[in-house]
């Protein structure tokens, strides 16, 4: 038990702290079902992008263009949904993203362009294409603009677990737990309630993709060949694996996932395409992929974290203020650990920062809206900086591969 | 006697070189057939053609009397040919099971039948006494075990013909014996084995028949029982096998390098090497013998300054250089011939003229006081290196990647020696290059030594070590276990210390 | 025929332009417009005197931004954060510049110094994170973009905005006094009838020369290029990858700081939420276009500015001017592909020549 705590203290302690802080009335939004529900909804695009990144990187192709593919997902998703209906929007988003995945694949696999350069170029292309298409597609609409689409009607419909979460007018067990106002139990109730109520069918579909992705990669020959291509392209080729094809498929799948993420953003959160609505989530997805060690479950947990930060930022300025004391506490624990390891300089910096955050917390009412806005981004940065686990990156990722180059 | 393989008039050319010239070869079924020749003789090309990686320009291949036309290794595998490469084609992040079954099924979404495969694999490993744990990840395995995985991989696909490309290059004598036993078992079960090597002693031990290749041509096929090593050597290079001739010791009593109690840790806490103590005089070559992975690479890199040390002292000439950066150490007279010329010693996509600057870009040699690089100076010096070290190249503007391995290595060695160091570390200086380049480098090293240079020589080529060194240390699991006089050292003796058999 | 690498740097953009024009022609057809007409309209508008001045003005910050990005590229680093780096630099230097009074040369030098220092430090964060924590700079610089934007917005609205003094409600810094403004070159060049050609174009030329000197002539530049070409070989040759990374990011960031100086001292004279943005990302486009070459990027900057400017007129003709954005993107992609293809061709030729030398020798 003690060993378990020692190993995961960096995850367990913040969770405990958050629950404690949530007991204070003003910060109770930290652990309500509303927040958790929002967290899941905000985590999903990041998770999908991360899964997409995983498929690409596991075949050895770095995909920085996820953001651009997501943008295509938002645009095509919005347009198809507006023209034909929400599920068509999903389909169009996936196809739009996959199409850009194809472009990236052609650039990196066939033409051996540097992966990151190609990805950056894809992002530029996506932005340009989105603007152009937007002007052309909605040219006859009263709301014509280059940066946003008309509003979409039509919903996908959602689902709430009966009896546990009050679906279809049944009593809500989790809701009951939440209302009890008992520490930990109520917060648990909030978490479970948020995770199981008002989940749109797209959300359920998206969440189901996580175990599905794991199953594909580790339990099927197709997945094995895919993974081998990222680890050992020449060896796999000599065993009959079609390396080029696998890379193409991997990158297109990643585009599809990113496109789905974009369509999801439009249909779930905003109901409209707006330029810039991806707000770097493609990159945060990449971060969750790295943090999740290129495995679906890890990616889900990583994106859950970022989603939580995002949810707080959107829903409750108060809750974000509560995060200040959380950060202060974490820095304090970190400082203590450094003191034990006799790393005095880092420890003193940490203590200084911890005190700074404490002062900030005590002397302010709210965190300025400009700072709240970048909560998920700075969370990403902090998480990536502190992830010190042994990463198992696909060995040949980022390296150009030429067929027939054996020994 | 059935022929497993019959090659008729096989020819293959690449721009500028005829790799295979009208090769005719017959390989009997159920035999161990060795193919020998030096680097560049065309053995690898021939094998790649046989294995479907390359297509011959002319000529016919018959497998078990059927004429075949391979367009990819898949076809060769289907015909019962399996290749075990010199550099293992294994992925660290895959398990043994996954590595073996890769490519067996079509890329479908049906579930992998792991238990069935595991059973089948265990049957094979039992049959040939090559135990393996299918659940281990590849990076957990030792070299001999990895080779076993490669062999099982091809047997699993029903290989009746096994091609082994320099299989003993990474093994120590004791592991080689194990391998040979396995090969004899396989032969007794009717498997045909093609054994590519340039180690004549081993070939004479294990093979039934030996084919010699030289300059792209098939010279002859002889019975292993009746041919002698000298005969083979003559056929292989048209002259006797060179080994560096013994010379007299010539060292002065001034120290080039002193290592005191040096210890370094790896990332996982294990010691890369511990309590290393030795010194090198000026005009002396000290050789370190060891199986790859016993700390010698880390030691060399630690002296260079790119591998962190935990404790101990490094003294170069008169100065303790522990706290000095690599750049400063080079300034103080350290030169380094790296193990991997392409990734560690050269900027591949840059001209030779610029590559000669590498290592000295901050020194007065190539930097003016206004921070500018003296490119003209570099061009002149690169020509000196090219001239003195017989680097075959159209000119000094040629990019490094355009050169052959031997010429690249000659350039690197030349650059490092022309920097007039007081200590030269040479790590596998003649690995993977043709004999001509090898002799030249040996001569140059010897000349430099005679001129007062101290040399630390790390090599897996035991003949090279014995021939060049004035003293030899054997490193095993991070410590020096023995110091030997090259006069009394033989490869077998070295081998037993290298594997910890003797202490 | 000796086809040198230098020639390839020219072939690729030419090829890219052909592809871009081709694709745009197709797209224009698809939406029912006449491509030839469109291009003619664009060209006519673009070559007017007014347009040329506008184009040159626009290319100055674009070029400097590209140089900033290129410094990173040369070492294999992707500084996507030029955007937030220059915005923060501009904000702080605008605020400081408005608060002091100095003789012109000192005043302008101070502004530039503050801008360069700020963006260099902001960029150094990403460099530090990469060296010490292994965070890939693409992600860190992008995250820092969002963080930097947020911080700048906050600082502008709450610290540098003297609401009471000024009568507007949009946050802005005070106006730069005359001594901090760089005069236009119209008088010198005798083109008084045209709009102002900003004096900072001289600065851009200086930036180009400085970039060329640092990267191709100095020992540091050798280290940078070596690390970008082969990090391990560079390390073995004595380059300190950690120090170099941070240094490269700081130099890149430093150049980034100069990006905002042209608009700030040339015509904007203050920092507001409307301060020219997007230059950081456009710089990436130009760097890719010009393949990190000082002259290539100049050409790229001018080309891009020309496209942007000439496309403005399309609105009047009911052609979606966003076609220009697609052209931009297609040009970038094709340059990048074309460069690889040409490079491989040249490399193969070299290998052939070299093996001939072995066979003959």
Q: Explain this structure to me?
A:
The complex is a heterotrimer of chains A (407), B (503) and C (361). By secondary structure, chain A is an all-alpha fold. Chain A is built from 18 helices and two strands. In chain A, strands 1-2 form a two-stranded antiparallel sheet. The N and C termini of chain A lie far apart (50 Å). Chain B has 503 residues and is α/β, with parallel strands linked by helices. Chain B has three domains: 3-237, 3-Layer(aba) Sandwich (Rossmann fold); 242-333 and 421-503, P-loop containing nucleotide triphosphate hydrolases (Rossmann fold); 354-419, no CATH class. Chain B is 32% helix and 25% strand. In chain B, helix 13 (375-388) packs across helix 14 and helix 14 (405-418) runs parallel beside helix 15. The longest helix of chain B has 16 residues, at 173-188. Chain B is globular, with a radius of gyration of 25 Å. The two termini of chain B are 49 Å apart. Chain C is globular. Classes of the chains: A mainly alpha (407), B alpha/beta (503), C mainly alpha (361). Chains in contact: A-B, A-C, B-C. Chains A and B meet through helix 10 and helix 11 of A and helix 2 of B.
Could you give a quick summary of the protein structure above?
The complex is a heterotrimer of chains A (407), B (503) and C (361). Chain A has helices at 2-7, 9-22, 33-58, 66-84, 86-110, 115-137, 173-179, 185-196, 201-219, 221-231, 233-238, 243-270, 281-291, 296-315, 317-340, 344-363, 369-373, 375-386; strands at residues 158-159, 199-200. Chain A is mainly α.
